[in-house]
Protein: DNA sliding clamp PCNA
Amino acid sequence: MLELRLVQGSLLKKVLESIKDLVNDANFDCSATGFSLQAMDSSHVALVALLLRAEGFEHYRCDRNISMGMNLNNMSKMLKCAGNDDIITIKADDGSDTVTFMFESPTQDKISDFEMKLMDIDSEHLGIPDAEYHAIVRMPSVEFARICKDLSSIGDTVVISVTKEGVKFSTRGDIGSANIVCRQNTTVDKPEEATVIEMNEPVSLTFALRYMNSFTKATPLSNTVTISLSSDLPVVVEYKIAEMGYVRFYLAPKIEEDEDDTKPQA
Amino acid sequence: MLELRLVQGSLLKKVLESIKDLVNDANFDCSATGFSLQAMDSSHVALVALLLRAEGFEHYRCDRNISMGMNLNNMSKMLKCAGNDDIITIKADDGSDTVTFMFESPTQDKISDFEMKLMDIDSEHLGIPDAEYHAIVRMPSVEFARICKDLSSIGDTVVISVTKEGVKFSTRGDIGSANIVCRQNTTVDKPEEATVIEMNEPVSLTFALRYMNSFTKATPLSNTVTISLSSDLPVVVEYKIAEMGYVRFYLAPKIEEDEDDTKPQA
Amino acid sequence: MLELRLVQGSLLKKVLESIKDLVNDANFDCSATGFSLQAMDSSHVALVALLLRAEGFEHYRCDRNISMGMNLNNMSKMLKCAGNDDIITIKADDGSDTVTFMFESPTQDKISDFEMKLMDIDSEHLGIPDAEYHAIVRMPSVEFARICKDLSSIGDTVVISVTKEGVKFSTRGDIGSANIVCRQNTTVDKPEEATVIEMNEPVSLTFALRYMNSFTKATPLSNTVTISLSSDLPVVVEYKIAEMGYVRFYLAPKIEEDEDDTKPQA
Structure:
């Protein structure tokens, strides 16, 4: 028996919107400690990891570990029917091949039950080892999303270069080239507007903008994004979910074939 | 000679938007008592009835009963050229094959005349007898529109079931099923947010969601919608137009072929 | 060496949006007095003239006259990456085949450099003689844009007729005809809401609505538009750019083949 009651139901709506374009089908894993997901995107290039801790739910009952295979597009269709102020409860009976999403309006005058069929999905859980990163950048999530979108109008890849002074995003394409530098800035009025750089050594890595833009679908989940970079490790783009967990995206850097590290690759 | 001056011209714009997707061509009937329309939708499944009473116009002159055939899409194109605060006057000379829509801006600095060709349209006026309904549901029009839209993402038909406690909207489709229950609630701050149920006997009827969604185009006309249901009678979905009349939509229930009354039909 | 620093960078963004649909490639001419452009639209029917005077820039350095050929669509892509509050600096080295647009955020925390390749464009500069116009209409730019858009839903051409009392915009199409009259009105609260007519003799001229609608893309540049009309001269549709210059569009009237001056032409 599974029953997870989330007062701030809009969080779950936002989580789905942030990952459904990247992942078609995935297993949601439910245990005593939380509700989580780990999945590769459909082209097996990027990895998504979601965690919603049990403490973040108003009511959390999970009698035994279960893994529920869901089509994220169908799940998203159902969650879109929840109001932004609705309380969402996820329910499943033991051995059932369906999951039920219950939406309660704040006044309790409208109660909706959406029942969705579960799927059998083969998946292997990858262990993601803790790693030391050469540089960690924390910046406003809206700013990061804007930069990825802007650079996409010029080129296909972004070079992210971190120094103590700031982080530089560069691209090059047929119509020209672009460099955007965000300076470290911790003296802003609101902490979520700060750009903070922790750096052990400078890094400069190249990534496909298509994936970066896809990750920024998670922007509504958090005011800030954290980008962790090391040579030879996938970048981690993390959006924290207040008091509950996170959505993390992993993407391997592109290996450059020549010195020109901003040249777009086919 | 016909001259109808409507100070709140945006009402006429909203009326057109509410029916133009359902009906292509229709006769507007003008008499001493009011301006009205009755028309089947293009697939002859749903019926629309509009009434704008003479008292609702600032000036209402209709020397003799006339019936003016109009293409609603063209009429809508012209009415879209009226500002939302404009006064609209409908004018036609006796025997003319055109109608003129005059728009006056609130400051009277801008006066527009749009002249549209009339059409000959065969139509028979159906008598709609007064009927006793098993159940009448009054609810916020925005809520009804939201429910019809949400259920359309799951299935093709909606079962509307009324009991004394509330009204239930159900559907079923390939990806799962959905039930939305709205409880009777008359103790809200604003009367237009109430859900009120008058019931003589319980009813449960099935309708095509495509038509229901089309009817909800009338939502901007009224804060509330009234749904009148009886077995073996078409449902009436009514949007009142403040102090002037109404737009009513009629739709026959689907006859179920088996016990499973939420099964979508081809 | 060229370096033009424009504090209100959004002006340059708006200028590009106002002309990029009309003109594909054009030479920007830079001299000690200002930054200007003159170009025919791609079908060689309309002419665009832009002037941004040197005094309007915070810093203006132009060592010698140069003409820089740019693809306006690519330039627009780059300028869209500037924030609305950003300071924009246009930079070019002598003899360089690129131009750089630098965007500085108001806090100086984000600095972007976009480098675009220049093009060789053949163009001849037309001398536009000063002319006496029969009638000059100044009216709110939003109102003019609305009228051109509204009339486009009915017909393909607009007849603009000016008398001392007002200006009339007329069209005719398959579904009917339309006349919109704006009365001279100088007693409004805000000067930019006035409709002011200076008339030496009445004029009535016909223009293609497709071009008029294209000109109205400049509406965000100015609250008012000035329309200068003479028989046998191209109309001038001018949007002033506060304290800096203007965007002007020139379009020849259509010659009517019969008396019916509102008949649409192929």
